[in-house]
User: Fold this.
Amino acid sequence: MKGQFRSEAKQLPSILAKLAGGLVAVGGLGGAVIVLTRRPDPSWGGALVWALVGVIGLAVFLAASRLLAGRMDEDDSAPTAKARAKTSALSWLILLVLAGLFLAIVLIVAV
Assistant:
């Protein structure tokens, strides 16, 4: 039990970085969409800044994901390859659900 807690405690910073990267990616790309669609004369510079923030968030998400996968490989009680793929798929699913939720909110606000 202690070993599993330590293993999960070591993974916590990567998990939090992954969450933060996903939220920044959704916020940044959503901000770019808002800048381009909500203003009568959209500022490409403003949209580019928001898009850059979204790309940086996506990069942080991917880096944390790879770091987390590397730490899972180091763990001696690591799950099978199928369980690792399931964990990775779950992270991507969470990111896509958050992005879809944000886009739905933007659509509701825009209409």
The chain has a mean pLDDT of 82. Residues 2-110 form one domain. The chain has one domain: 2-110.
